[in-house]
Amino acid sequence: MLDRALTLDELLCFALYSANNAMGRLYRPILAQHGLTYPQYLVLVALWQRDGQKVNDLGTALNLESNTLTPLLKRMEAAELVSRRRNIEDERSVIVTLGPKGQVLQQEAAGISRCILAAAGDDVADLIELRCKIQELATRLNASG
Amino acid sequence: MLDRALTLDELLCFALYSANNAMGRLYRPILAQHGLTYPQYLVLVALWQRDGQKVNDLGTALNLESNTLTPLLKRMEAAELVSRRRNIEDERSVIVTLGPKGQVLQQEAAGISRCILAAAGDDVADLIELRCKIQELATRLNASG
DNA sequence: TGCGATTTAATCGCGTGCGATTTATTTTAC
DNA sequence: GTAAAATAAATCGCACGCGATTAAATCGCA
Question: For the whole prediction, is pTM greater than 0.70?
Answer without folding.
Answer: yes
